[in-house]
Amino acid sequence: MIWKKGIPVHVSIDHVTKTIKGETVLNDICLELESGSVYGLRGKNGSGKTMLLRVLCGLVVPSGGRVIVDGEALHEGERSFPASVGVLIENPGIIRSYSGFRYLQSVASVRGIASDEDIVRMMQRLGLDPLSRKPLRSYSLGMRQKIGIIEALMEKPELVLLDEPFNALDDGSVREVVRLIDEMRTEGALAVVSSHDRDELDLISDVIVNMRGGCVTGIERQGAA
Fold first, then answer.
1. Distance between the two ends of the chain, CA-based, in angstroms?
2. Looking at the domain assignment, is residue 214 inside a domain?
3. Does residue 5 lie in a domain region?
4. How much is the pLDDT for 3?
């Protein structure tokens, strides 16, 4: 799978705060994210990782601060979502009566970027049979997770946001997802990945962002002396 090298993406998270029912779930987050890098979000459940991903993709409007993608702030003009983004957040939403291929084909038809051949290649790489008529409702958790990953990646987006992508995957599939993320980075995409698996996050990330209680508590640049 080849990501097309496009215009470099820059994301600025500018003093982002999110409050829900009086509880601050994101507290004054400031980060600068650049193309060609993988940023790992590390923290326990409730640390704010998933909420930050929701804000980054435009699904949640911050209570304060801004997310600026290539100089354009989300929700302040005509743009509410990044122009080229692939997202896997929590459990992927699927049409349970469809087969895996038919579901991905229906999603791809919206923008017309991913071809049937792209979908077949991605399914085969992750060990799914594109010819199977088995409905998604009968898929295991790991198989549904693979469908969600393919949905996020099949259009070769410039910005990729993955929340716990290794959840329920077998070791071989984890290695294949790691290879896909590495291919994305090589071709200039920007990825933000949350994971509870410290080893996998260390393996794929250029930068680790540690979070606790809705705050960034530290930033580690991998390979730094």
1. 33
2. yes
3. no
4. 47
- Parallel/antiparallel/unpaired status of strands 215-221 and 64-69: unpaired
Closest by Cα among 225, 198, 216, 222 to 29: 216
Query: Residue 200 — pLDDT band, cuts 50, 70, 90?
Result: confident
Distance CA 190, CA 47 (A): 22
Give the residue among 204, 206, 201 at the shortest CA–CA distance from 221. 206
Q: Using CA atoms, how far apart are residues 175 and 183, in angstroms rounded to an integer?
A: 12
Please tell me the total count of domains within the chain: 1
Residue 29 neighbours by CB under 8 Å, 6+ apart: 13, 15, 16, 17, 48, 52, 65, 215, 216
Burial of 131 (0-12, 13-18, 19+ CB in 10 A): exposed
The CATH number linked to 213 is 3.40.50.300
Report which DSSP code applies to 158: S
Q: What is the 3-state secondary structure (H, E, C) of 59-121?
A: CCCCCEEEEEECCEECCCCCCCCCCCEEEECCCCCCCCCCEHHHHHHHHHHHHCCCCHHHHHH
pLDDT of residue 122: 97
The domain containing residue 95 runs over which residues?
10-221
Per the document, the length of the chain is 225
The candidate with the shortest Cα–Cα distance to 45, out of 190, 167, 220, 206, is 167
